[in-house]
Fold this protein.
Amino acid sequence: MEFNENFILGCSAIGAGLAVIAGIGPGVGQGIAAGYGASAVGRNPGAQGKIMSTMLLGQAVAETTGLYGLLIAMLLLFVKPFTN
Amino acid sequence: MNHHLLMSGADGVDFMIHGIFSYNLFGHEVWITTSHVCLLIVVICLLIFFFVGGQVFRHAKAIPGNFQCALEFAVEFLDGITDGAMGKKGKGFRNYIGTLFLFILFSNISGLLGLRPPTADYGVTLPLGLITFSLIRINEVRFNSPWAIWKDKCSPLPPWLPIWLPINIIGDCAVPVSLSLRLFANILSGTVMMALVYGLLSKIAIGWPAALHVYFDLFSGAIQTYVFCMLTVTYIGSAIGDAEETVFKRMFKKSKEKTA
């Protein structure tokens, strides 16, 4: 079936918007990690450096899924794989 | 018309990689792009930095000056990354981790100078991920016997029931992809954001985008550099496991004991 190119581009834009919804998960996860990190520093202020580095590492790993969504959105918007 | 509908008013937005000139390599058309040029600039800056640093350390003073202090702090920090995750075994990886850290850091920060960061090109980050992957696998074979590796690959189930084996192997192969995509997507998102600010708000983008540069280039870039190096060290450390010496050394010791 042949589609109009404008239709494909519009659908790509909608798909890009839907793909960035993936950012919800990492946002919640990073917030929870930061909260626990803050409470850990409150309980043991001496270990702040280690807690910070562990927290940042975990947050960066959790961020990956959100970044995959972002990549898909960018592919849809700028590389336009479905148009000819 | 179709483009303009989607990107109306966004003609000034430009964050893509551009080709500079092309040449023929065994019948393929190969392009020298802007990321090659940016990479070259970054490498030249690194070389100058290393040369100056080497000179400073060669004529090191007992009471260090500012620059020597900064260098000593940097070396201590880089050594701390490997020591924290691997202990004594980390000594051999200091050179690689230090080089990797400084290269990625300089690449990420190069956005401050108006360059397009080379790490915002998947062709730069994927090789870094593949180097890490080969280091992980080579060190796994160096430090563990084949039977231990087999047991580890079947790990949640007993070694005579290798149902979990393909899933573990897929998980191992996902490591370089996720490592490189994480770095690439973080830096690319910063680049796109800055390009949007400069392209769409070009008339009022005077001065205040500096604050955005601090976040997207300095903060995000430094965090991602740290995360890449930490993950590399952690993966290598977990691949080595509890082994203290390489397999060859252990075999050598055993045969020595037998002959004695």
